[in-house]
């Protein structure tokens, strides 16, 4: 197997990481070739043309630009090839994530907090089923962190103020490193956890064993009433606010004539910056909840609104 | 000697600290840079000792974070960026173009004072309590979460930036206006082409850094939302602004090194640099395209995929002129009359290390692999190969080459060759294992790490010990030579450059008669069989 050709290199454990490994092998071989030729020539010239050596030094190579044009073109062609290869794998890695299984990740100094939709929460660990794409929705509570799983050759910064979502998929059951790769302060190197990949059956058992009394959406609903959101958005409210039932995943017409898809990011932004995207034919009345809700509360609210997707008002 | 040399015109302190002679200012810079190099090196030493074991057992995590920040800030802004332009450049540029001094001698002295003010401000921040943001100052960590002397350190870097801008301006004007009669652009030594390109970057990019650091201060003091999302800012804006300066800054570090290598390869092969015009224009091409690649530091930051695509492509493009230079240097050796004096050993070491650094740069420019490798030791290894393996090696080569001109003394060739070889091996042992660590996934800036990474870290720390000894050696034999070395002739390497046509060390105003240039550079005669004059 070609992956074993690279010493000290553990093969990647997802479909995309296999492509990255192949790319790495390609880069290594190109570099080895270039270095080999270069070092051979350097050694050859150093030995043949050393000062003491009596050898013909008449300039046989005419000083023409053919050589330069030759190696410029060769380098350029080689580089463009590597660029196209690297870019196509990159687009495959960061493709729009599947929406079937979602896990929320909140990064804060200095821990990873992960939460499954059923309410199962973990610190510095993330259980996932094998051979199934999982969409991670990540947010940071404070500074920039970076979610890095070397075994999957995958990394994404978690930047405060926005949601990042990526898709992961693990081929084989096992426990793998989860690192924070972006320097985030005192205990940066302690911000490590593990990805536990389980057979799908084991995973559902695990989920059941860990199940808390309420799901994230349920807690979000309680929060929705507590924060007073239901006063305007709830059924029978006197104030005119857009209804939230059936909203998730649908296009929303905005007052500036454009349309937005009501995804996680849209809902998050609407809670924090309600005046940036006014729904068509509604007044900009909603106050901002910036600084009033934490990232964890936010994702509960998002889950609650998502849970309303099935109901039509 | 018909005229007193610049070293012997006057001996008072005043004659040194108020001098406007570019050669004496170069010596001032040289002394300050050695000081900063050893401070930065001391921090690196503690870091490598700490990393010999996976536990955090020598220093606390806060101290560790301050150490690598100090190492980065000092090395980047107070050693790598100023080293070749401000010491070798300051000394050699007027000599190479046959001028009496730089265009603005007093501005040159002022640059040194500004540089020292910046350096002392940063040193104060380090001594008063340290900075723990990393040399990149990423927000919002640096503006809201770091309890350290961020603003003082940033102020130091901000001040030092003015020194860079003034030096760049001075070089540009000097190279344009003060060339000796007959010294046309295509007769200019390639060292000057590369310093010219460097100066353009210094003048255009440094102001952006200054503005960025100023914005950090504004956000920290007045709570204006620039970079912090909680008050309406954007953390990625900082990264764009920072790397808009800091990526071209990499070329500020490496271009002068490439310039030095042209002089060395040509001199010790007794041949004109192969494809002179190509190499000259490659310097300017690197400077120009170097401005368009900053986003390759942000492939995993959440910038748009299309932006990543463009930056990746431009990063591959900027590698082309660098590759051309390597091929041209190799072609220069062909049918040369090669002598392996210490400067040549450094130059050959440079070609090897720079090529490895450049090739691994392609790995990082390659989008999908960068996702895995960025923020790991792979990146650390890559930029150390370019900056330390490349730039520092070139600096040492240039220093040995022009040492007889600067001091008028010859050094021990034996010890110089030994140091050059030891630096090469120590360097590879230190940094090659870090590529493997990075490929295996060890993140950078880790104080404590999982035990499976220990083997490579131990090798790396062992290499660092060799490297430390190798870097100390020149301090002794060059220091000895400066006072007790044999007198150097005017032209110990039998080289055709203008700087060799005046006595060693040069008189106060460089030339007793105005030199006139009548031919292309690097017109070596091929009769270099004489025994080395510096025994």
From TrEMBL, chain A:
Transmembrane segments: 22-47, 68-91
Catalytic activity, reaction form: 4 Fe(II)-[cytochrome c] + O2 + 8 H(+)(in) = 4 Fe(III)-[cytochrome c] + 2 H2O + 4 H(+)(out)
PROSITE patterns, A to Z: COX2, COX2_CUA, CYTC
Annotated Gene3D superfamilies: 1.10.287.90, Cupredoxins - blue copper proteins (2.60.40.420), Cytochrome c-like domain (1.10.760.10)
Localisation: Membrane
Membrane-topology annotation of the record: Multi-pass membrane protein
Enzyme class, UniProt record, top EC level: translocase
Stretches assigned to the Cytochrome c domain: 215-309
UniProt GO cellular component terms: membrane
Pfam families noted in UniProt: COX2, Cytochrom_C
Keywords: Copper, Electron transport, Heme, Iron, Membrane, Metal-binding, Respiratory chain, Translocase, Transmembrane, Transmembrane helix, Transport
Functional summary from the UniProt entry: Subunits I and II form the functional core of the enzyme complex. Electrons originating in cytochrome c are transferred via heme a and Cu(A) to the binuclear center formed by heme a3 and Cu(B).
Record protein name field: cytochrome-c oxidase
UniProtKB/TrEMBL annotation, chain B:
Domain of life the protein comes from: Bacteria
E.C. number: 7.1.1.9
Membrane topology recorded in Swiss-Prot or TrEMBL: Multi-pass membrane protein
Enzyme class, broadest EC rank: translocase
Annotated metabolic or biological route of this protein: Energy metabolism; oxidative phosphorylation
Pfam families: COX1 (PF00115)
TM region(s), chain numbering: 26-47, 67-97, 109-129, 149-173, 193-222, 242-261, 273-293, 305-324, 345-371, 383-402, 414-436, 456-478
Signal sequence range: none
Subcellular localization(s) per the UniProt record: Cell membrane; Membrane
Keyword annotations: Cell membrane, Copper, Electron transport, Heme, Iron, Membrane, Metal-binding, Respiratory chain, Translocase, Transmembrane, Transmembrane helix, Transport
Positions of the Cytochrome oxidase subunit I profile domain: 10-518
GO terms assigned for molecular function: cytochrome-c oxidase activity; heme binding; metal ion binding
Any one cellular-component term (Gene Ontology): plasma membrane
Catalytic activity: 4 Fe(II)-[cytochrome c] + O2 + 8 H(+)(in) = 4 Fe(III)-[cytochrome c] + 2 H2O + 4 H(+)(out)
Gene Ontology biological-process entries: aerobic respiration; electron transport coupled proton transport; respiratory electron transport chain
Function: Cytochrome c oxidase is the component of the respiratory chain that catalyzes the reduction of oxygen to water. Subunits 1-3 form the functional core of the enzyme complex. CO I is the catalytic subunit of the enzyme. Electrons originating in cytochrome c are transferred via the copper A center of subunit 2 and heme A of subunit 1 to the bimetallic center formed by heme A3 and copper B.
PANTHER family recorded: CYTOCHROME C OXIDASE SUBUNIT 1 (PTHR10422)
Similarity annotation: Belongs to the heme-copper respiratory oxidase family.
Listed name of the protein: Cytochrome c oxidase subunit 1
Gene behind the chain: ctaD
């Amino acid at each position: 197997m070609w992956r074993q050709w690279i010493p000290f290199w553990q093969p990647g454990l997802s479909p995309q990481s296999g492509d990255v490994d192949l790319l790495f092998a390609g880069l290594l071989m190109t570099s080895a070739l270039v270095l080999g030729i270069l070092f051979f020539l350097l050694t050859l010239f150093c030995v043949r043309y050393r000062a003491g050596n009596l050898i013909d030094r008449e300039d046989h190579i005419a000083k023409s630009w053919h050589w330069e044009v030759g190696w410029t073109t060769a380098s350029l062609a080689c580089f463009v090839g590597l660029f196209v290869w690297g870019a196509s794998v990159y687009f495959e890695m960061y493709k729009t994530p599947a929406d079937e299984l979602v896990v929320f990740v909140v990064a804060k100094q200095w821990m990873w907090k992960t939460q499954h939709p059923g309410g199962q929460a973990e610190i510095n660990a993330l259980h996932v089923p094998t051979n199934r794409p999982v969409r991670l929705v990540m947010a940071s509570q404070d500074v920039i962190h970076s979610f890095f799983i070397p075994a999957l050759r995958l990394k994404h910064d978690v930047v405060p103020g926005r949601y990042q979502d990526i898709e992961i998929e693990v081929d084989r059951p096992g426990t793998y490193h989860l690192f924070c790769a972006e320097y985030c302060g005192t205990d940066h190197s302690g911000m490590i956890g593990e990805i536990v990949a389980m057979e799908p059956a084991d995973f559902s058992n695990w989920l059941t064993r860990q199940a808390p009394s309420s799901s994230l959406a349920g807690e979000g609903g309680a929060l929705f009433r507590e924060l007073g959101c239901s006063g305007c958005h709830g059924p029978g409210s006197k104030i005119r606010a857009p209804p939230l039932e059936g909203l998730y995943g649908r296009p929303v017409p905005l007052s500036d004539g454009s349309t937005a898809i009501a995804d996680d990011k849209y809902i998050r932004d609407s809670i924090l910056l309600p005046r940036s995207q006014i729904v068509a034919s509604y007044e900009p009345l909603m106050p901002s909840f910036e600084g009033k809700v934490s990232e964890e509360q936010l994702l509960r609210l998002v889950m609650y609104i998502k849970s309303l997707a099935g109901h039509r008002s | 000697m018909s005229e007193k040399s610049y070293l012997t015109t006057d001996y008072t302190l005043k004659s040194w600290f108020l001098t406007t002679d570019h050669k004496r200012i170069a010596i001032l810079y040289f002394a300050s840079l050695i000081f900063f190099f050893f401070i930065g090196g001391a921090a690196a030493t503690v870091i490598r000792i700490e990393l010999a074991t996976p536990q955090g057992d020598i220093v606390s995590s806060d101290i560790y974070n301050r150490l690598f920040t100090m190492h980065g800030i000092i090395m980047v802004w107070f050693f790598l960026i100023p080293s070749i332009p401000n010491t070798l450049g300051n000394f050699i540029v007027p000599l190479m173009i046959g001028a009496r001094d730089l265009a603005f001698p007093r501005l040159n002295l002022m640059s040194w004072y500004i540089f020292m003010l910046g350096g002392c401000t940063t040193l104060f921040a380090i001594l008063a309590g340290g900075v723990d943001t990393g040399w990149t100052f990423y927000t919002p960590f640096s503006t809201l979460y770091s309890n350290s002397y961020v603003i003082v350190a940033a102020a130091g870097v901000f001040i030092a930036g003015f020194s860079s801008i003034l030096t760049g301006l001075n070089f540009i004007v000097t190279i344009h206006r003060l060339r000796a009669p007959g010294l046309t652009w295509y007769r200019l030594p390639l060292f000057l082409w590369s310093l010219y390109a460097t100066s353009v970057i210094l003048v255009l990019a440094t102001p952006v850094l200054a503005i960025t650091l100023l914005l950090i201060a504004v956000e920290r003091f007045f709570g204006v939302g620039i970079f912090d999302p909680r008050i309406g800012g954007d953390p990625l804006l900082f990264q764009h602004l920072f790397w808009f300066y800091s990526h071209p800054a990499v070329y500020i570090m490496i271009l002068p090194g490439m310039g030095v290598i042209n002089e060395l390869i040509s001199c010790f092969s007794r041949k004109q640099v192969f494809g002179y015009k190509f190499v000259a224009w490659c310097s300017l091409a690197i400077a120009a395209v170097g401005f368009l690649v900053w986003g390759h530091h942000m492939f995993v930051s959440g910038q748009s995929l299309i932006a990543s695509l463009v930056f990746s492509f431009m990063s591959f493009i900027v590698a082309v002129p660098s590759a051309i230079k390597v091929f041209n240097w190799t072609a220069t050796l062909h049918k040369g009359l090669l002598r392996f004096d210490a400067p040549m050993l450094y130059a050959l070491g440079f070609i090897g290390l720079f090529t490895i650094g450049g090739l691994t740069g392609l790995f990082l420019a390659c989008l999908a692999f960068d996702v895995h490798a960025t923020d790991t030791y792979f990146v650390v290894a890559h930029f150390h190969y370019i900056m330390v393996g490349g730039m520092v090696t070139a600096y040492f080569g240039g220093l040995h080459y022009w040492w007889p001109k600067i001091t008028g003394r010859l050094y021990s060739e034996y010890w110089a060759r030994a140091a050059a070889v030891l630096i090469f091996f120590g360097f590879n042992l230190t940094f090659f294992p870090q590529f493997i660590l990075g490929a295996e996934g060890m993140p950078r800036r880790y104080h404590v790490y999982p035990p499976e990474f220990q083997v490579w870290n131990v090798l790396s720390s062992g290499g660092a010990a060799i490297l430390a000894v190798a870097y100390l050696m020149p301090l002794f034999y060059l220091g000895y030579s400066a006072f007790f070395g044999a007198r150097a002739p005017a032209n110990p390497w039998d080289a055709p450059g203008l700087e060799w046509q005046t006595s060693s060390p040069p008189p106060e105003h460089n030339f007793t008669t105005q030199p006139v240039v009548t031919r292309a550079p690097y017109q070596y005669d091929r009769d270099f069989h004489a025994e080395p004059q510096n025994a």
